[in-house]
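Why predict the complex rather than its parts? Because the way molecules touch one another can change local conformation, and only a joint prediction can capture that. The input here totals 531 residues.
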Amino acid sequence: MTGTILFQQLINGISLGSLYGLVAIGYTMVYGILRLINFAHGDLLMFAAYTAIYLIGIFTLPWQISFPLAMVITGLMGIVLDRCAYRPLRDAPRISLLISAIGASFLLENLAIVIIGGIPKGFPRPPMFDHVITILGVRVQVLTLYTPVITIVLLLGLLYIVYRTKVGKAMRAASKDFEATRLMGINLDRVIAITFFLGSFLAAAGGIMWAMKYPQVNPFMGVFPGLKAFIAAVLGGIGNIVGAVIGGFLLGLGEIMIVAFFPEVSQYKDAFAFVILILVLLFRPTGIMGEPMIDKT
Amino acid sequence: MLKVENLQVYYGGIHALKGIHISVEKGQIVTLIGANGAGKSTTLRAIVGLVRPRSGSVKFLGNETTRLSTHQIIKQGIGIAPEGRRVFPNLTVLENLELGAYNTGGKDLEVSLDWVYTLFPRLKERHKQLAGTLSGGEQQMLALGRALMSRPDLVLLDEPSLGLAPLIVEEVFNTIQTINRQGATILLVEQNAMAALHVANYAYVLETGSVTLEGPGQQLLQDERVRKAYLGED
Ligand SMILES: Nc1ncnc2c1ncn2[C@@H]1O[C@H](COP(=O)(O)OP(=O)(O)OP(=O)(O)O)[C@@H](O)[C@H]1O
Ligand SMILES: [Mg+2]
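Output of the joint prediction:
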């Protein structure tokens, strides 16, 4: 393999990995607070992509407005999800929450089929992302370069909120102790809603970039990226935001490199993530950056 | 200031509080003593809405709070150091204190912080340390300090002396009296009946979910039954 091809694959891997990372943040944040794997999280990618399509197609808004607006709407959808599927079960056993999450995921997918139909829709990728530039002899679509940059910017913004603001402090407190958080006079349901908003907002950014990368939007488009992102979150250490992004990068790079080095196994590319999941769960269940898992009351 | 009337609390089939009456007047230190499992912590939990009573009422500053949610009750002017300290181990000492003042902003925060640091200079020294790495006694100070950060009218303390060295226990009781003199009303749950009765204006003895005895602290200190059951005399 030549250096150029390796470089090419490196860029592709980082780009794919940053998408996984962006979506993984939402899994990890919700897990951090509710100890819940929010299985409906992946479907928010699909929700965001369709929302963007309609904002551009029906309301004829320019993408500069449609995309951020779709992210906000998806963030609000995350709050609705929490309000309807999880909040009524705050005091219920964890397993009920999990079942509710799976149900919410099926509901979103099937609602999309009923309302929109199962035929894939093209995604109106803005022309500015189509440009191809040449770096070090490698031709790269600019979208591929923007993706990790956008991810890092969003990550830094999120870290600022979590570690430098009052509500972030409340989120970190809530991740350890619900009751004590409420005893500080903090509206816990509001803190949880904000957590869902932020995670869903980032998932929407991932969903929109995913739809630009693979411009075929269908009701199940969120399932695979969602699963991969979940694995990335586990790999990074579930509950840890930076870990989620690192896990995403590693998983994306790993997938691309496997295909590059062993083209003969390329049809098993998707299995790679699941092998990683099994290995992590067997040998290092806390992931790269996670703390030992402690059940909370 | 605080009026608890006929409070009934069940945990599933367990009848934890069987119709409790408690009243706390402004400026007082009131203590709640009793054996393990008597229902002391449950009483505090019901006051702040962490458990829902089956019947009865809680009034704070004349307002019914029985049906309010915990954060709404706290906002009316209550600070609490709950059973088991419950500091946030993943946050620094300073961040823990700031959370205690979640609903007070800007300038008031600095004033409260100064006040708490004066009461507990150790917390100032350690303000950057993660609360989870503090010693047990330091965590207790943090829990106390955090409860004071909102400048509450009423402070609820659940066994603040638990697990502390005798010298520190004395310090804690001195602090309780200090903050009381500075205007805070205090409802104190204690195992250390002797110390609690000494500082209390009024005391309630709780046995298996009912108040069996009440009166001024000094009076209960002389009481035959109290001396036998809680002060370890025969
Ligand atoms: N979450 C719960 N579920 C079931 N029973 C409970 C629960 N919390 C408390 N109880 C029971 O209610 C009764 C009162 O408990 P509570 O914690 O109020 O006692 P306490 O007076 O604070 O005791 P201690 O001095 O040991 O702290 C006990 O019998 C206890 O077992
Ligand atoms: Mg107790």
